[in-house]
Structures are given as C-alpha cells and as structure tokens.
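Anyone opening a protein record will find just a pair of labelled lines. A complete record is shown below as an example:
=====
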Amino acid sequence: MIIAALGISMLSAVANDGVYYVRGAELVPVRETEVSVRSEVLTISLCDDDFARVDVDYEFYNHGAEKTIQMGFEAAKPYNTEDTLNPKGIHPYIYGFTVEVNGEKMPYRNAVVEPGLLDTPYTGIKDDRPEEFEQYSYAYCFDALMKKGVNRVHHTYSYKMSYGVGRTFEVPYWLTPAARWQGGVIEHFTLRIKAPNTAKHFVMADSTFRAAEFKVVEGVGKVRHIKEGWMSVVEIALRNGTVEWKVDNFRPSEDFCIQSADTYISFNEKYPVGTFYDRSDKFVVWPQERKAPASIARNMPFAHRGYVFKKKSLRSFFESLWWYMPDESYQPTTADFTPREWRFMKDCR
C-alpha cells in the first residue's frame, strides 16, 4: 500500500502562504486487485504540542490466495521549512511510525521516491539539495503477508501540524488513494477527531462529509454547519472530547483538511474578540490584537476550560462565543496552563 501524503488545503483560498510539515493519507497498494477494505477506523488527535497523532485500524479482505504484497506510507517533502532532502528517506517531521500486520510488528524500509510512485526512486537529486521547485516524497515501505480472508493492519505515527497566515494549525489528509483497493470502496469507514486533555476549535470543508453527520461521542463538544460567503464548512468545538463520523460503502471522491477555526474569522472584523482561542504555541490570533479589555483577555484561558463566570459582563461576553462550553464543576486553576498561556497572562496584566 501507499499512503499518499500530498494533501492540499481544502480552504487554501483563505491564505496562500504557510508552512507544511507533513500531509497524511490512506494506505493503498502499489498494484493490487484482489484485496478490498472491509473497514477503517481513522483517529486523529489534535494536541497542544503542535503535533497530530494518527492511529489507523484497517480490516482488509483477501479474495485470492495467500500472498505477500508491498505496502507503504508516502509523505510529501516539507514546504517552506528550509529543510533539504534526507537521502536516507526519513521524513524530518514524522515520529514514531509503527505498523502491525495481523498482530505482528513489521520492519519497514525508507526511501526517497517520485510523488505517488512508491516503487519509483527519486532521480532528481542535485548535490543532495534539490531546488525548491523539485518534488519528491519520503516512503516508509514494508512487506505484508496477506492470508486468504480477513487481515488486520494497524499503524500509528505523529507529525508536526502545519500552519500559515490566518491559521494556527492545519492537518491535511488524503482519502482518495483508497480507490486503489479492489472496488474503490471502504465498506465501513469511521473518522474520529480527538482533543485529548485540551480544547480545539476547527473547521473542515463539508463537501466530503455530506453522507452523514458528525456526532460528539466523548467529552464535551458541539457541531454546526456554516456557510460564510464562498466557504461551506462544518465547524467543531471539542474539550477533552471526540467527534465521530461514520458511513458505510464509502467511496471517497475528495480529500479533507482539518483547519483551526481562525481560518475563517481572523480577517473578518465582524467577529468579536475571542471568537477563536487555542492553547498551543502557534497562536495566530490573539485577543489583544483586537484591543480586548484586559478583563476579557485575562479570562480567555479560564473560559477555554469551561469556567462559569459570576460577573454578569464576563458571563454575557463568553456566552456569546460559540466555542464556549460552560462546565459547572470546573474550579479555576492555573495548574494546567501552557507556557504560552503563562506568557499571555503576564502580557495582559
């Protein structure tokens, strides 16, 4: 299989400049017509350390005889990071790559390949420093013994989330390469997006997700659809929660991209101060940039954790923000503040 990691931002018209570390995608075969995808559970965790953690469980069905097939993960070269090609084929922003086939941990090989062609080595190297316009991918390859019938593949990895002008984080993911499996269909597909021990506010182009609705299945969260000018998105706010999208007989025709909600609010002055807030170190929109009152700015981290304000003016303001989800049981504390939040609080005195 190949994971094609050449994802393009679904909302890229908001800003055309950014830093792209890794773009994730589906596991697909190089050449395979006898193996179909019974099910896939894709879990993406959005963390405050600026990393996304990916966990994917597949169930494949081999309709033919037992055989060994080449599988792999392909990740596009970073963009706008000033990194040069690593001839060993190890991506500079992918960590902890693991894969198991039918419960057995598999060794893997690294290579530099032509984009979308796992079995074609990259030949455009010039003194190990390709010019900026040259394209290549990093590949993580392994051999998988596919027995006749059901086979399970589980793989994990972490990668640095991209960011850019007007967006604090961005996680592109390609679904369309799944069409390379027999029939081009995932019989049972589940996407889970998690905000572990934090809160995240993000959007995705809703064209990919019209076959079903997102549901909050863990923690606290809310979902709505927004049509704002040329943008039609599903907007999601989570606090230590998980949102899930499930569909059967899924034939992916589009890819998707998770983008921080400041994507569509950072340049729009009609949105109030505080419409977007994130705990990570990659803040793009800060309340003081819109001249927020100090009392509002200081309380942003507490609001993000669900504090129920006693002062009427503060309560009224934060209740006007869609991402705010009050929690009567939350007692204000700075114990879990991030280093950036500590600096923020100091600046807002």
